[in-house]
Design a protein that fits this description.
The protein is built from 16 helices and 13 strands. Helix 12 links the parallel strand 12 and strand 13.
């Protein structure tokens, strides 16, 4: 999706509500010709024309076919004048009945009167190009649309407000100040001019490094908040994995039978724990099997384990611990793991201390998935393994929740690290400036100051048409 400069001056139009039937649908116009298009297709019983209405006002009326006068729909028409709009351009929104036919008809009338069909994300892209938001805030709009949990929505709202952007701009400002000191040192080394000493510059760069690291350290938490926790239930056949999944979901999602190996594929479902999305997977066996279907189930289960943030490893309290239990636990060793002894409502075949010794952990949970006992402990443990605390996470301060932002920060940090190496070795001002300019450029990719058309096209192509 490449939008040339002249296309940025077009009047664009699109349907901004989801497809299908609904009570209300919206056709949105943006650009210098928005009011003129509305003048040609809208009439109000109270008279007047949209181009003469005050900003941020709504009028009841009808959309009519020009020259014929046939009524298409009864609507509310909103007029918003630049620059106080989403795009910082003149905007008109037609609120009509939400069926596909009236929406398509009104959109076609707008296009017939000189508007152009908007490209994916073009309204938000114009908001960015017109300076109403920076690039990270524009990406937060997409995150808001896609959010599937309260935590993801809150995080997107904070990013949209500009908390993260402000931090990045602050880091760039600090680099500019350091670069100014370096340039002064280079230009006036033999002059009687006061400038920052090399020691101060080095301290400033090291403080900058610490600040960038502090932001980067939020990425693990931020990425999980944005996409949710990936939790995988694993263990040998018939330990109660499917029963546990059903119990955690509070409904029967997985078939449960006394026959071992009922689950032949990975079953996935999403659940909400205190506002955080948890993507829960019930796995088939992850120890070898000979039939082709079983082998594919094992392959998929192992892949899910590799991708998981947390592994919920289960054993059966009514059966002695086996070599298979130990082999499966060996596959999740090193991951953030919750060890669960299930079926505590049945006669015990081993003691908790046996599990503690076998799996080399003091943190073992005893539950009965069938009776619903101990589920709260598992939920709390998933939270602890994911965040080091409970699910009631304070979403405040700048948080990295976007892989593109994380990569840019990592590259910026590399430039800063190289700069510190220069100060520790020979203090070459030109090399130091080059390294810090690289960090400055990478941080600018986050907010958009350094982003080229290829970056912008990649980001805004992910949006739907109409946003």
């Amino acid at each position: 999706m490449t939008m040339h400069a002249d296309r940025n001056n077009d009047t664009i139009a699109a349907i901004s509500t989801p497809s299908g039937q609904g009570g209300i649908g919206i056709v949105r116009l943006s650009g210098k010709g928005s009011f003129q298009v509305a003048d040609r297709i809208f009439t109000s019983p109270k008279g007047g024309r949209p181009s003469g209405y005050p900003s941020h006002s709504i009028r009841f009326g009808h959309i009519r076919i020009p020259d014929k006068g046939d009524i298409v729909d009864e609507v509310l028409l909103a007029v918003m004048r630049a620059p106080g709009t989403y795009t910082s351009e003149d905007v008109v929104e037609v609120n009509c009945h939400g069926g596909p036919v009236p929406l398509r008809t009104i959109l076609k009338l707008c296009l017939d009167q000189g508007a152009r069909l908007a490209e994916p994300g073009e309204f938000t892209k114009r908001a960015f190009l017109n300076g109403r938001m920076d690039l990270s805030q524009a990406e937060a709009v997409l995150d808001m649309i896609r959010s599937e949990s309260e935590a993801a929505q809150r995080l997107a709202a904070q990013q949209l407000k500009g908390v993260f952007s402000e931090k990045i701009r602050g880091l760039r400002d600090r680099i500019i100040r350091i670069l100014s000191d370096i340039e002064l040192a280079i230009d006036f080394t033999e002059e009687d001019v006061q400038f920052a000493s090399s020691g101060k510059i080095t301290r400033d760069i090291k403080n900058l490094r610490r600040s960038v690291k502090e932001v980067l350290d939020t990425s693990g938490k931020g990425m999980i908040l944005r996409r949710g926790i990936k939790a995988v239930i694993c263990g040998r056949p018939n330990v109660g994995k499917s029963s546990l999944m059903n119990a955690l979901l509070r409904h029967d999602r997985v078939i449960v039978t006394p026959v071992a190996g009922t689950t032949r594929d990975v079953i996935e479902e999403s659940m909400d724990i205190s506002g955080v999305m948890v993507r829960l997977s019930d796995t088939a066996g992850i120890i070898g099997t000979r039939d082709r279907v079983g082998m594919e189930g094992v392959k998929r289960s192992r892949q899910k384990l590799l991708e998981a943030d947390v592994a919920v490893f289960m054993v059966d309290a009514s059966r002695p611990l086996s070599g298979e239990d130990r082999r499966i636990y060996g596959m999740v060793r090193g991951k953030r793991t919750v060890v669960v002894i299930n079926k505590i409502d049945l006669p015990r075949a081993f003691d908790v201390k046996d599990a503690v010794k076998a799996f080399e952990t003091n943190d073992v949970l005893e539950v009965s998935a069938l009776r619903g006992r101990g589920l709260d402990k598992i939920e709390a443990a998933i939270a602890e393994r994911s965040f080091g605390g409970d699910m009631d996470i304070a979403i405040e301060g700048p948080i990295v929740s976007n892989l593109r932002h994380k990569t840019a920060l990592e590259k910026a940090l590399e430039g800063i690290e190289r700069g510190i190496e220069v100060t520790d070795k020979n203090y070459n001002g030109e090399l130091l400036s080059s390294d810090l300019n690289e960090a400055f450029y990478r941080l600018g990719l986050i907010t958009g100051e350094s982003a080229g058309d290829d970056v912008l096209d990649s980001i805004f192509s992910q949006f739907c048409i109409g946003k």
